Structures are given as C-alpha cells and as structure tokens.
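Hey, quick one: can you model this chain's 3D structure?
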Amino acid sequence: MSDACQPVDVYVGAGSNVEPERHLRAACRALREEFGALRLSPVYRTAAVGFDGDDFLNFVLAFRTAQAPETVVEVLERLHDAAGRVRGPNPFSPRTLDLDLLLYGDAVIPDPAVRVPRDDITRYEFVLRPLAEMAPELVHPVNGQRMDELWAGFDERDPSMQRVEIDLAGD
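Sure thing. Here's the predicted structure for all 171 residues.
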C-alpha cells in the first residue's frame, strides 16, 4: 500500500435507491468524520439502469486528504458494509449505497482495486453532470479535457434526469 504525502482533492460518486436520503446522509456524515470538510454537487434523481427498480439519488462529493488511495477505497467499502449493501452477480441491482472513487488528484492508477480515473466519469450522465457542475475547470488526468468541456460534448443526455433539492450535508 502506498502512502500519500501531499494532500490531494478526491472526488467520489455517490448514489442510492434504497432509502436513499438516509443512506446518503449517513455516508456524508461518516466521510466528514473520516476526511473533514466535504463539498457536495447538486443531487439528481435518475431512473434505475439495467433493472426495474426505484429511482436513484446521485451526486458527487469531494474532500482533501493525504491518505493513500487504497485507504480511501477501504473507507468507502466499510461504508458499503455499514449500509448493508448486498453484492450479487448482477452489477445492475438496487443499492443501499454506492460510493465510487472517481478521481484521486491527478493520479492515473490502473490497479483494479483502486482504478482512477474511473471510466464512469465519461460514461454516465449521473456522474459527469454533477462533477462538471461542481468542478467545471477540473482536468481529466487521462484525456486532458476539463469537466465542463466533457459535459458540453456529452451526447447521451437523459431528459428524465432531474435535479432535486435535498440537504445531504445536514445531520
């Protein structure tokens, strides 16, 4: 495991479609306790993809840390377990909590256990849109494009995706 020395900005995609407000609030609270202040993007309601299920609430959160990326992933996995996430053979299923490390500074890490930047950034609107709104000038470490540029060129927009006003920062 590597040890980070300099603090970096970390971006995490967050979502839930099982009691989403409760699980996402609890995750934010735990992440604040672990890493300090969080920045939160707008929250979006999106239809379930790949299965019939309740809508998801999705957003991106960010924090600064000097902890290693492996440590960040371990914390995210502990939060999945605490939320009672069940992992089955189908990756498209209801989720109490889904936390994905999207970016760890400008690191490019191909290790499957950590893998950043996460492909979801350029693949899914529910990841790219809130990330571009939160950090429009942030540069993707592989393709060199800013998040607002990636969003402007994104062509698979879902008209049913809706911004919702939910306070996930409160305790």
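One thing worth noting: The chain has a mean pLDDT of 91.
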